[in-house]
Amino acid sequence: MSVVAATAAFIVTIDGPAGTGKSTVAHRLAKRLGLEFLDTGAMYRAAALSALEQGIDPADGPRVAELVRDMELRFDWTRDPPDLLVDGRSVGERIRTQEVTRAVSAVASNASVRAAMVDAQRTIAALHPRLVTEGRDQGSVVFPDADVRIYLDAHPEVRARRRVEQLRVKGIETTESEVLAQIIERDRIDSTRRDGPLVRPTGADIVDTSSIDIDDVIDRLEEIVRKRAGRALVESAQHRDDGDACVVGDDA
Ligand code: DC
Question: What is the pLDDT of residues 96-115, one digit of tens each?
Answer without folding.
Answer: 988 999 999 999 999 999 99
